[in-house]
Amino acid sequence: MAATVALLSVLIAPGGADATSAPGESTPVYSYDHAIRESVWVDTRLDGDGDGRTDRVAVDIVRPSEPARQGRRIPVIMDASPYYSCCGRGNESQKKTYDDQGRPVQFPLFYDNYFVPRGYATVLVDLAGTNRSDGCIDIGGRSDIGSAKAVVDWLDGRGRAYSARTGGTRVDAGWSNGRTGMIGKSWDATIANGVAATGVENLKTIVPIAGISSWYDYYFAKGAPLYDSGPDALATAVESPEAQKRCAAVQRKLVEGAPRTGDWTGLWTERDYVRNAGRVRASVLMVHGMQDLNVRTRHAGRWWDALAAHGVERKVWLSQTGHVDPFDYRRGAWVKTLHRWFDHYLMGYDNGIERAPMADVEWTPGTWSTDARWPAPGTAATTLRPRNGATPGVGVLGGAPAPQGATAVFTDDPKLSEADWAAGIDRPTPDKAGFRTAPLKAPLRLSGSGKVTVTATPSTSTAHLSAVLVDLGPDTIRDYGADGEGITTLARQTCWGAGTKGDTGCFKETAADTRKVGYTVFSRGWADLGNYADAHRGRPLTPGTPYTITLDLAASDHIVPAGHRLALIVAGTDAGLIDPPSTRPKLTLDLARTSARLPLVGGAPALARATAGAAPQAAGADAPLDGVAPPRSISRRPSAG
């Protein structure tokens, strides 16, 4: 009965799912209740734990039984993850479950419920060192990527699998047609990026949701440390108890290869997928929250630009959320899009999705628009310059350069964050240098990644820098700083596909968690000033000596409305987001040698229209502006949900 009710839910179309099956798409004609549920162990051909035998990774499979009986092969939707036993997947932290004979019962998320009746196999892979797999987790390195790639190879007839973790009989994937699509959020998405960057055959598409594109960028920003621990701590958090006992040597390599100095090492080179974007054969449907302070949008921006440079077929969804799956903020549209995407790239339907607009962007909570390309057509890098205003400590941002010799001074206060700086933008405070336009005469859209170049003279031998862009004006936004990072979870459920008693396919609904604000921080960048000469290696500073460095701003897409002001803030430690330096420096900015290069839609003419005739606004005694609360201490896992 449960299976019948859940299957009917596909036809009822909860939250906007397809009510009927249009021509040119897969339809739910196969039994989920009678699907084949099995586990195999794929030989990775690696010996990550050094025990003298190659590691096997556990692969759990749900696939319709009818195609195999009819002699037909089917495509695969695959999610490789370290989280299936330690932490769970999705908004409800679902874990894999098994019956008393070890056969899979519950698959987290809806992929099996929705797609298995439509003729797909769903394959969930325990990364090496996690859950029921051999080997050791190595944080996006050879073992992580190799263990997932080995499964893609096996699905395409190029690898070996067995019926047991040790010994067992050979198992082939004769039911698979070899065409695989990888999907997942956060670490899972990172694995999809890394496997695609190997150029593996027959990986037809990937759907990375909030994925890492370079592990160095997860832990550092041009030398500035983003967390107070390294990849070894992350490995400990997800490894199985058995792996922790056998993986001490791998742990030592993670410690030794990732010094907290922020210097680039061979460990980071191995885990930089951007450098191998030219090998990607798969299409890419990339999803990212523009307020993701865990896997920041620098990852999305760098990966997107590299894929574009190599002509990879791609699309992007950009939301106002933090680290959130689109199933939990745009559920109906996401399921429909994913269905079309997999149907096209895995089943070969000519449904036009590859010709649809390239980008979906969320402007206000729940309000989306599309663009033919991304960054938006007409975007051009445009230079804005800071200068002093009429009130000391309250600066102006515009096209005119500051005179030679003009300076702004601030002292790093590691207790304060971007929220504190933005709240006091119209008042001189000792912890920041803030610059803002007058109220805009026309909207100004920023689309893509920007850069801020500063020349700063430190008072001590170490200094960290932050640069943030702020939209100054009232708005209602998703509360990305709250626990749900822009969503709230409701009690009622809807079902997305067929189900059984052990795996219903039903999930709690969500709604936008919003907040009225007086400002919005929409892009950020950080750096260690000691990396002024080499982005990959820091060096001590000489107090009193000026240094020039460029901070890379995270990718975004944001409209500053007419009547609002655009602000640039340069400061020291962004509390909760980067770690402080060993000293508390005072920094003097040379304003004539400081500028922001921003991706403005319409370029310099758009900036001129937005600021034409606008006089700088004098600072007053206004109360501090209100925004999203200061960033919480971010989890040191790419995602536990």
Overall 3D geometry? globular
Describe the biggest sheet?
12 strands, mixed
**Beta fraction of the residues?**
25-35%
Radius of gyration in whole Å, from Cα? 25 Å
Low-confidence stretches: 1-22
What is the helix content? 10-25%
- Strand order in space, largest sheet: 8-7-1-2-6-3-9-10-13-14-15-16
Give the termini separation: 30 Å
Summarize the structure.
This protein has 641 residues and is an alpha+beta fold.
Task: Summarize the SSE layout with pairings.
Elements: H1 2-12, E1 36-43, E2 56-63, H2 65-69, E3 74-81, E4 97-98, E5 104-106, H3 111-115, E6 121-126, H4 142-155, E7 161-162, E8 170-171, E9 176-185, H5 187-196, E10 203-209, H6 215-219, E11 220-221, E12 224-225, H7 231-238, H8 241-246, H9 248-257, H10 266-270, E13 283-289, H11 297-309, E14 314-319, H12 331-347, E15 359-364, E16 367-371, E17 379-388, E18 395-398, E19 407-411, H13 418-423, E20 432-436, E21 444-448, E22 451-458, E23 464-478, E24 487-495, E25 506-512, E26 514-528, E27 547-552, E28 556-560, E29 565-571, E30 586-590, E31 595-601, H14 603-611
Parallel strand pairs: 3-6, 3-9, 9-10, 10-13, 13-14, 14-15, 18-20
Antiparallel strand pairs: 1-2, 1-7, 2-6, 4-5, 7-8, 11-12, 15-16, 17-18, 17-31, 19-30, 20-29, 21-28, 22-27, 22-30, 22-31, 23-26, 23-29, 24-25
